[in-house]
Design brief:
2 domains, Isopropylmalate Dehydrogenase, alpha/beta, about 230 residues
Length: about 230
């Protein structure tokens, strides 16, 4: 029997509810798969932990998580704790600490659930959204100076590396290649962000040559939001 050890971090908001339901689902799968056993270890890290310890998780939290095969994470954020503390205190250290560079979000409308989109029902919408999870605005590069003074300055620098962009493009193209329609849209903002996002576009073009059977296009993020609503198919 294969044993898989999973760290469960329900954290905040809807997290405990969805993690509890998710564990029920995977345990039901295990009941039908006798050669597989899942062992969950639960951690109380999150905003409540922060209010008691002035930290979202212990200082050795990442070292603790290294001993697990997977992490089952709920949600992070609370109205009475600043968002930058909750995000940078828990989820992003985990993402960056374990180089979890691909944020992969399957999106579809399930039968029996009303669609928020007027023109899409079950079977009409089947996306997988892939987002870079460790660079760009998530790099944490920047700072503030002259706090509280009229000349106060805050900088937030998005970081794009060729290694980082190439691997997320390869992941997205590879995922598109594995799906029936083999379609991919690369979302960009290269009209305004003329350095990092232009490199993003150029690398997308380069990587596309490795996947000749994938049909792809490029779209500015503003227009993409309209397309997702008006033409979700």
């Amino acid at each position: 029997m294969k044993q898989i050890n999973i760290a469960s971090i329900p954290a905040d908001g809807i997290g405990p509810e969805v993690i509890s339901a998710g564990i029920e689902v995977v345990q039901a799968v295990c009941e039908r798969t006798p050669e597989l056993a899942l062992n969950f270890t639960h951690f109380d890290w999150g905003s409540d932990y922060y209010k008691k310890h002035d930290a979202m998780m212990p200082a050795d939290g990442l070292d603790t998580l290294k001993g697990f095969d997977a992490i089952f994470f709920g949600a992070v954020g609370a109205p009475d704790v600043p968002d930058h503390i909750t995000l940078w205190g828990l989820r992003l250290p985990i993402c960056q600490g374990f180089d979890q560079y691909a944020n992969v979000r399957p999106t579809k409308i399930i039968k029996g659930i009303d669609s928020p989109l007027r023109k899409a029902g079950p079977g009409d919408l089947d996306w997988v959204i892939v987002r870079e999870n460790s660079e760009g605005e998530y790099s944490g590069n920047g700072g503030r100076a002259h706090r509280g003074m009229p000349e106060e300055v805050g900088t937030e620098v998005a970081i794009f590396t060729r290694v980082g962009v190439t691997r997320i493009m390869r992941y997205a193209f590879g995922l598109a290649q594995s799906r029936p329609r083999k379609l991919l849209t690369v979302v960009t903002k290269s009209n305004a962000q003329r350095h990092g996002m232009v490199m993003w576009d150029e690398i997308a073009e380069e990587v596309s040559a490795e996947f000749p059977d994938v049909t792809w296009d490029k779209m500015l993020v503003d227009a993409m939001t309209v397309r997702m609503v008006m033409q979700p198919q």
